[in-house]
Amino acid sequence: MSEHTCTMLLAGRQATIDGSTIVCREEDYGNEFDPQRFVLVHPADQPDHYESKGSRFKTDLPKARYAYTATPDADDSAGIFAAGGINTANVAMSATETITSNARIRAVDPYNVVDGIGEEDFLTLVLPYISSAREGVKRLGRLLAKYGTYEANAVAFGDHEEVWYMETIGGHHWAAVRVPDDAYVIAPNRFNIADFDFNSPTTMCSPDLKQLIDDYHLNPGRTGYNFRLIFGSASNQDQVYNNPRAWYVQSRLGGGRSGSRPTDYDLPFACVPTNKLTVEVVKQVMSSHYQDTTFDPYQQKTGQRAPFRSIALNRNLELHVLQIRNGVAKAIAGVHWLAFGPNTFNALVPFYANVTDTPAAYRDTSNQYTPTNMYWLVHTVTALGDRYYRQSQPLAEQCSEDIMAITRHCQLVTDRQGQVTPADLTAANDQMATVAVNRLTKLLGQLVGMTFKKEKLQY
């Protein structure tokens, strides 16, 4: 399993409380630190010529381009890994979700391990050049067909009307499904697209994909085309690493299959939630670790391994909720909600995307420990909070709620100003970042005071 393993949640505009579309993903890494930055890439900063670090891929890029937000690695020696962002055409993209494959499709269409493209490249090669979610699927599809990929990944695109979920297939093929307007999708690190209709206006794929399946006898199903069955995995690893995350979120948000179990492979792809989704609820499920079940790691005995992999982990790098709002001016429609660090202890902030720059505490992340950087501040809070979880949990939850309430109010005030410039939105983002830094610093002080009283060197 790749170190960049994540969890994705998508929602159509009729599934959300305010009619916005949502493209959400939490980005994971290994147990080492991987500092993240929040940046605005201006058109002049986008390279004319691009070369990968993970392969020999290189290409010239179009001159016409949009500015866009992104959350790249602070250390770009292994590649940009821009992760997720919103461009000035109000198109959101998240890339990528590591998924699974199987030997049948990889034998027919092997990975291009020499000069293919991968996670490090996708967002940089696509987001600056698209004006809709559909265009994003088509552009990435053309790149995959031409250059191939060396790994299995899922990508999501959103605009003010549509959300599309796309998965790579083998080395040069792909498929995409439009998320139903009234539904959400929870996607762990497995192949997630299930039943696929080649004739539907809500699907897209490689032109020769059906013929490839039929010619090489790739479909074990008796009827239809279930892509999870055809192209995905059904391993013991899926039962403990992937399936339970989908099961838990579906059990919380509703719309899943009655009587399903955490280890089930055939959980639904898209579900209609019981209630319309809010960003707060999205944050809750993306911060989940099987609360209220016996699978919660915090309920295990000391030294006992948790039975299932949860969404919230010490390996969480950043959480983005890319929201394209309807019913507001285009200048303020794109909101790049962002939180750095482990989700159990971080806090989302609604940053406007149409800005001139990003807040310094999120932008200027150092590779060295610097507690004034948001990435390092949250990791410091987590290091103390995780050790005394029961005592710190209510403090962390209150902190997250306070930050969301205050920054949402700042957003409401800014929205009501009417005509706003990118400079105005940049100033609002700076104000919200200051709120988040100050409130999390206060939480850190509370945790230091709490843990200090538990020091063993007392007499």
Automatic annotation (TrEMBL):
Q: Which reaction does it catalyse?
A: an L-aminoacyl-L-amino acid + H2O = 2 an L-alpha-amino acid
UniProt name for this protein? Dipeptidase
GO: which molecular function terms?
Answer: dipeptidase activity
Q: Known EC number(s)?
A: 3.4.-.-
Q: Which family does it belong to?
A: Belongs to the peptidase C69 family.
Q: Does the keyword Cytoplasm apply?
A: no
Recite the UniProt keywords alphabetically: Dipeptidase, Hydrolase, Protease
Domain of life (superkingdom): Bacteria
The answer on whether this UniProt entry bears the keyword GTP-binding reads no
